[in-house]
Amino acid sequence: MELRIVFMGTPDFAVPSLRVLVENGYTVAGVVTATDKWGGRGKKQLLQSPVKKYALIHDIPVLQPKNLKDPDFIERLRSLRANLQVVVAFRMLPEIVWTMPTFGTFNLHGSLLPKYRGAAPINWAIINGESETGVTSFFLQHEIDTGDMIFQEKMPIHEDDTAGDVHDRMMLLGAQTVLKTVQAIEQGQVPTRKQDDARATKAPKIFRETCEINFNQPAQEVHNFIRGLSPYPAAWSTLDGKQFKILRSTLTGEETHLPPGTLRSDDKTYLRVACQDQLLALHVVQLQGRKRMEITDFLNGFQLAQTSGRLGQ
After folding, report:
1. Is residue 229 within 8 Å of 211, Cβ to Cβ?
2. Alpha helices in 128-276, H assignment, sequence order
3. What is the rounded distance in angstroms from the CA atom of residue 10 to the CA atom of residue 95?
4. For residues 9 and 276, what is the distance between their CA atoms, to the nearest angstrom?
5. Which helix (H) or strand (E) holds 274?
6. Where are the domains of the chain?
7. CATH class of 4-199
8. 3-class SS at 134?
9. Nearest to 152 by CA among 119, 188, 104, 114
10. CATH superfamily placement of domain 208-306
11. CA nearest 75: which of 56, 100, 102?
12. Which pLDDT tens digits describe the chain residue by residue (313 residues)?
């Protein structure tokens, strides 16, 4: 039987997975994505999701339900006559949706399940200092990220990788895994296996309020926290009452007994902050009201002597 696929996804991360299906000749009967949102300067521009933009260019029907249980949406989805649904970076689906196709619905998740189940697997893997992550394709079932696994592909997390770096490499690896999974389903040779719930860990959604940096920790933990939240939502502290985001850092190996949060700089080429055990070098930062800058550009208009010389105040 020929596959008729409905693809569900919204952000940039999902686009390569949709593209690889189209470019390999699969019939994508429709796309389900987020509703358009007001954004841009003054929120006066109606923005389409990256997945919608790609679908429209390739004349793929687009559904944008506000409510995934809405009877009109369910009827329109059913009318697409899909026998397989592919989910990449989308919302949690109700049972009436994920059980609809003959071949089921599979999801691509950005971790080596059962580790890092949840909304922010890339971020938490880096924050926790993992040296390896990957992607998992699995069939959906009731509990989120718990279904039978199909394929897993591993990838390294390098010492100074940010969440953005890993995201960009992972979306390409994920696209190949989606293609591999669809090919296996098409051939009737799907190697599923159960997840070991005893090994499961969580990757809950991240909120801005929980992104404040605690410098009274080893520098390695602070570094992991910074890169795990970069570029968004970004780890932050305060400098003289203004929010101070840190987007990139590196370990210096320089031991220090300075109070945590103390800044050191030559006001030209470097800015370092004291952590519990050593100084951490800051490379890309953003002070409230200013754009993101490389540290040399930031220091061009910043004099440490004119501040408290401490972060977190």
Report:
1. yes
2. 163-187, 219-228
3. 20
4. 42
5. strand 271-274
6. 4-199, 208-306
7. alpha beta
8. strand
9. 114
10. Formyl transferase, C-terminal domain (3.10.25.10)
11. 100
12. 799 999 999 999 999 999 999 999 999 999 999 999 988 777 778 899 999 999 999 999 999 999 999 999 999 999 999 999 999 999 999 999 999 999 999 999 999 999 999 999 999 999 999 999 999 999 999 899 999 999 999 999 999 999 999 999 999 999 999 999 999 999 999 999 999 999 999 999 999 889 999 999 999 999 999 999 999 999 999 999 999 999 999 999 999 999 999 999 999 999 999 999 999 999 999 999 999 999 999 999 888 878 889 998 7
Q: Residue 105 in contact with residue 96, Cβ under 8 Å?
A: no
111 neighbors 212 (Cβ within 8 angstroms): no
* pTM > 0.85: yes
| Cα–Cα distance measured from residue 118 to residue 202, given in angstroms and rounded to the nearest whole number | 6
- In whole angstroms, give the CA distance from residue 192 to residue 171: 22
4-199 shares its CATH topology with 208-306:
no
Q: Which of 7, 46, 56, 58 is nearest to 28 (CA)?
A: 7
Place of tokens 């051939």: 187
Closest residue by Cα to residue 52 from 98, 105, 15, 27:
15
Q: What are phi and psi of 120, to 5 degrees?
A: -135, 60
Spatial distance between the Cα atoms of 12 and 159, rounded to a whole number of angstroms: 25
